[in-house]
Amino acid sequence: MKKFIIIFLVFAMVHTKNYAQSFNTLQDKFLIGYEVGIPSNDFISNTSWRGGRIEYRRMINSNFSVGFSGSWNSFEEYVPKTTYQKPDGSGAITSDLVKDVYSVPLTLNAHYYFKGGKKILPYAGIGLGTMYSDQTAYFNIYGIEETNWGFCARPEIGVIYPFTRETAMYFSGTYNYASNKNDAFSVSSMSHIALSIGFIFSSR
Q: Using one digit for the tens of pLDDT, what is the confidence trace for 145-159?
């Protein structure tokens, strides 16, 4: 399967014609992709290989779009036996545990498209909105769960490889700053980096 994907990507890039300059002439763009999450918080450190992204963009002109997006990542990490103090200092627990985090950023977005080469279209953007986060720590048969909503800011850089005027592949990297907290573990942010690859479908 991996060989098939690599062959497909090489074939697509080699046979891409000069569609980069005309790709943004179609107004409506729909993105769907696979997303990898890399934590940048103090609660969990393992990379998430389970994630996805959907997005809609509306071209205002050939260089600027607005839209909205939703994505998700599921993180999991095993932590060896450790002693944890209660936030109020009234007690402690010693145990190994499993941490699970489920994150869903929902943002309104704006993107600017730069002049690239004949076959690529680089862009940069920003998304502002909210993120739902479910954080659970399992101690043997017990669990501590915290769910909350927080403010989310999502700067992004990426590149588009058009196949035709209607279809393309994209690669992007975003930093998801999220204000979600976990008081039980004294964590003030549930931020993460996201790397995404997927397809774009355009229409009027």
A: 999 999 999 999 999
